[in-house]
Amino acid sequence: MTRAWVKALVMIFGLATAARADGLKAGAFAMDVTPKRFPISVNGGMADVQARGANDRLHARCLVLDDGTTTIAIVVVDSCMLPRELVEVAKARASKLTGIPSDHMLVSATHTHSAPTVTGVFQSEPDADYVKYLPGRIADGIKEAHDRRVATRVGFGRAKDETQVFNRRWKREQGLIPPDPFGNTTDKVQMNPGNQAKGLIESAGPVDPELCLVSILTRAGKPLALLANYSLHYVGGNPPLSADYFGAFAERVEQLIAPDAKDFVGIMSNGTSGDVNNINFGTPAVKYGPGERIKVVAESVAKKTAEAYQKIEYRDNVRLAAAVKDLELGVRKPTEKDLERARKILDENKDKKVLVGTAAIYARESELLAKYPDTVPVKLQALRIGDIGIAAIPCEVFTEIGLEIKRSSPLKDTFTIELANGYNGYLPTPAQHALGGYETWRARSSYLEVEAATKIVAAVKELLTGVAK
Ligand SMILES: [Zn+2]
Predict the structure, then answer these.
(1) What is the CA(319)–ligand 1 centre distance, in A?
(2) What's the CA-to-centroid distance between 422 and ligand 1, angstroms?
(3) Which residue of 165, 278, 322, 370 is most buried, as measured by CB atoms within 10 A?
(4) What is the pTM of this model?
(5) Span 390-397, mean pLDDT?
(6) Cβ neighbours of residue 371 under 8 Å, at least 6 residues apart?
(7) What is the pLDDT of residues 77-117, one digit of tens each?
(8) Which residue, 438, 453, 437, 446, is CA-closest to 400?
(9) Of 136, 208, 220, 175, nearest to 415 (Cα)?
């Protein structure tokens, strides 16, 4: 087909591909995904934890948007990380139930560290029953949101909460940084070094205090859903199971902005927080009781959200688009010499049921990583909601990468949802790799090639440019 022909066809079908005449439709639903059987494995630490009950409920918070031509779904699950296989089972089922193409669905994990294990990480193994249960619940949640579609309006808002995000990687006098798990003393930064630890120089990266808000109202002006995005790893402090501050935010924001709305769904998605948590190591430690810190953070972020919410302007008619790309990236695999050392350490620890200390734990990780393929596909995605761009990356993404995507996106209001559509470990920049530290240590939690961030940012920019057209 010639270019002129393509142009003519675009003109003919222009109306069909533009926003629908009767405007945007949307539906939202929070599906309970709390397991029914206890005890259950909880991952998030280097040793496994067993939960004996649920402190608060876990949800898959689902949002479906439909412009008459294109339908997209965004789901944020109270989970630490979701493996690609699980997400794909959920999407395939949801696609059968709703007709929404799998590539138009974004399914991410909040990164709560107090949810059932669904992917093997450190000494936690996936709970087979829950791995079977979760995809069906996610799919049913998408169907419920799809069934509930009504005529809506959408708006974008932004706020800042500088009080709750701190870069957790600190430059420190090198002699004071403990050796890495592989016996090297080359790390120039330390994660979570301790409050006012001796020899702290400065944190090794920026924070992104921005709160991005996608607000959906019914055509009558009633709040239907709010998708928020903030770059904070998690908070912690609740006994498992718990949805952490992500759940507390959803509850609090509903009280603040939609106290009378029935079936309102508040959603907090994780931005790019691979190196950012809630502790300022430059100041003395603050003591909190169980669950207290989560409430403090949720209150602060929800209040800032509610202030910005009042100023949001809405449109009835926006265009939706989605694009995905699989990027094949190298795996940092252990060398034969690394494996020799690992085998020796594991041999010394062979009677231990639970490995203690990073040397032994990372020796086991080396053996497991040796079985990985040399390259893995990394699924990247871009969604467009009018002038809003959402990038999705299946990693724990360093904050500076998210800032770069916001800066360079062709869409006016762009943010990134991390740990989306799969799990491929930490994503530091090449410069942060050179500084070393926990997030770069080779394990199933950090294994992509050193140049991964550069390649991923370039691919995400291309995807955003594609959906912005
Ligand atoms: Zn993490």
Answers:
(1) 34
(2) 14
(3) 165
(4) 0.95
(5) 99
(6) none
(7) 999 999 999 999 999 999 999 999 999 999 999 999 999 99
(8) 453
(9) 208
CA of 13 to the centre of ligand 1 (A): 45
Taking the centre of ligand 1 as the mean of its atom positions, its distance from the CA of residue 101, in whole angstroms, is 30
Percentage of residues of the chain with pLDDT beyond 70: 96
Between the CA of 311 and the centroid of ligand 1 the distance, in Å, is: 33
What's the CA-to-centroid distance between 74 and ligand 1, angstroms?
21
Whole-number Å distance, alpha carbon 2 to ligand 1 midpoint, is: 50
Nearest one of 132, 129, 75 to 105, comparing CA atoms: 75
Q: Which of 307, 329, 337 is nearest to 451 (CA)?
A: 329
Cα 4 to ligand 1 centroid, rounded to whole Å: 50
The residues with which 42 forms a beta bridge, in sequence order, are 49, 116
The owner of tokens 């005890």 is: 39
- How remote is the CA of residue 428 from the centroid of ligand 1, in Å? 12
Query: Do 218 and 150 contact (CB within 8 A), yes or no?
Result: yes
**Span 32-61, mean pLDDT?**
97
The type of residue at 428 is P
Q: Which residues fall within 8 angstroms of residue 286, CB to CB, at 6 or more apart?
A: none
- 317 bridge partner residues: none
Ligand 1 mean position, distance from CA 276 (Å): 9
